[in-house]
Amino acid sequence: DDKVLKIIDREYDLMSQNLWLKPGTNYTGFNALPAGFYNADTERFENLLGQTLYWSTENESNRFYRVFSLFYGCNAVAEESKEALNGLSVRCVKNQIYDRDGNELND
């Protein structure tokens, strides 16, 4: 996961070219769509057109998991911790990493 953050210098490269408050370039072909998240504390869906968060498989405790966030207006993929009661997006990705020239960077 750390390699992804080093390779993607702008989150806009992951974001789709439509539906976002500020569209991305989708340079990587990942085509992340805005989905917001369900906030269990407020019992509301939030930021539906301006953010998407993805669960990772890494749990930090029995209740908290590491997540990756794309947020319009930000220039980086954010890492944070969210309680498992919240509702976030899921995206299955193959563990292959490439640079901008298409060269594989896996160890």
Q: Could you characterize the architecture of this molecule?
A:
This protein is mainly β and 107 residues long. Helices cover 6% and strands 27% of the residues. The chain has one helix and five strands, in the order αβββββ. The protein has a three-stranded antiparallel beta sheet, with no helix packed on it. Strands 1-2 form a two-stranded antiparallel sheet. A hairpin with a 6-residue loop joins β4 and β5. It is flat.
Summarize this, please?
With 107 residues, this protein is mainly β. Helix content is 6%, strand content 27%.
Which helices and strands occur, and which strands form pairs?
Layout: H1 2-7, E1 37-39, E2 44-46, E3 51-59, E4 64-71, E5 78-83
Antiparallel strand pairs: 1-2, 3-4, 4-5
Low-pLDDT segments, ≥5 res = 1-7
Number of strands: 5
Structural class estimated from helices and strands: mainly beta
> What percent of residues are in strands?
25-35%
Average of pLDDT: 83
> Rg to the nearest angstrom?
14 Å
The number of helical runs is 1
Task: Give the biggest sheet.
Answer: 3 strands, antiparallel
Quaternary form: single chain
End-to-end separation: 13 Å
Strand line-up of the largest beta sheet: 3-4-5
One letter per element, helices H and strands E, the order comes to HEEEEE
Coarse shape: flat
Helix content: under 10%
